[in-house]
């Protein structure tokens, strides 16, 4: 099995939309305009490809976006810096392949060199103990709950502190920016969050 976690390509958006909207009640549905918004504004939008087939995706945004999600806005009101996981969806054919943990490791690596906090939420109605336990074992803690409308489902708002960020901030971000390395680069860097790469000592332009 050949697995790659990589940036999404524009021509794959229809396939991503199909995976999202086939996920059932656990994932909010999207239309093409909403997915296009993510493609143009998300700080992190990556897919899992297995043997040439899309197996899932994860979308995350930093603070400061105009994204209208009530749960995203809650984190904006409570934390100055974070990466917010809006959704992770794995196609049913590829469940139980460990892709959830692989994605979370990847987005954690993306976030910890940029912000001190990784955030998300899970539905509590209906409660899915597998999802709750997954986030708990990955280091997330509940920081709040909310129901955005009388008709909406209760959610648990979760956050995970990223202790590596303090070192990165003190060593790099406050002294010229991140090294110019491919694994540090984001796919879609919004104007509000430009990464300011610097060259490593002794490195020259080719």
UniProtKB/TrEMBL annotation:
Positions of the N-acetyltransferase domain: 3-163
InterPro entries: Acyl_CoA_acyltransferase (IPR016181), GNAT_dom (IPR000182)
Superkingdom classification of source: Bacteria
GO molecular function (one): acyltransferase activity, transferring groups other than amino-acyl groups
Protein's UniProt name: N-acetyltransferase domain-containing protein
Source organism (scientific name): Rhodanobacter glycinis
